[in-house]
């Protein structure tokens, strides 16, 4: 009972703290709110007007004739009257704040970014797309290494026993970075949930893979026993975010915990086993840990484009190349260890044979 008395006020204080941190100064500004309200009535911000802000007598938006509608590259992003009013009022208010030297503030939980062809966060979109391309390149290189450069079994399968797990990891990575690019391009409820769910799924699977590889779990039954609890937790967390509450604070804690756990596992395993490519792995662990600080140390976008989150995406591009290089080295290292060379004298010559030991 005594512990409950302490927990209740503690949670109350933390809740107030989180609420304070999440509050946005920009959207509570009276001038900004007045601008949005006026825009939604008139369809104009200053001299700029929006055709899709015109409404009929029953309140239904009138798109107007085809020459008055937004071009396709804008319409597919579903910019509506409210979002356009908020964006243009934000731009106008930031210009007013910049004149006396005031810094930018957040609006509806986000920093004021400048659109490029209707894309909300162009830098994050570009870096997400580059991460997607880098993962595809790494995965394709890993595939070619396994099935075209390293020896194969009689059934044409590779000797690297963790190959299937890395193939699945490649699919999770491509999916996650694809939805990251889509979400940063246009932030709506659907793209937000897809981005968050894909990131959680990738982190959860990466943690499972780190445990299986570092502890060299090869038996299928043992892999299922190790993976099942984590799979259940990750699945429950994704369902919670999508169908109950999209809790940003709780999701951040879960993601940071899973990320830190796997970084520690990989770093310790590389040192204990003295892996030949441990330097590559340590670079990924160390720089990846530093990059995570960008998610904590948030700052306004530079020139309206480059913020802390975009820089984090940028730092992961070279790390992705090094990471897939390590995966390839691990496959070569394990395959090489399966080869036992021995020599047999044959007359005046010596024949060198190879035997593959799959144990």
Using only C-alpha atoms, the radius of gyration works out to 27 Å
CATH fold-level assignment of the largest domain = Rhopdopsin 7-helix transmembrane proteins
Low-confidence stretches are 1-23, 56-62, 64-69, 340-344, 352-359
Let me know the largest β-sheet.
2 strands, antiparallel
From N to C, what is the helix and strand string? HHEEHHHHHHHHHEE
Give the percentage of residues in beta strands. Answer: 5-15%
User: What CATH architecture label of the largest domain applies?
Assistant: Up-down Bundle
CA-CA gap between termini: 56 Å
What's the CATH class of the largest domain, please? Answer: Mainly Alpha
Report the structural category.
mainly alpha
By DSSP (H or I, 4+ residues per run), the number of helices equals: 11
Rounded mean pLDDT is 82
* Global geometry: elongated
Count of individual beta strands: 4
Number of domains: 2
In spatial order, strands of the major sheet run 1-2
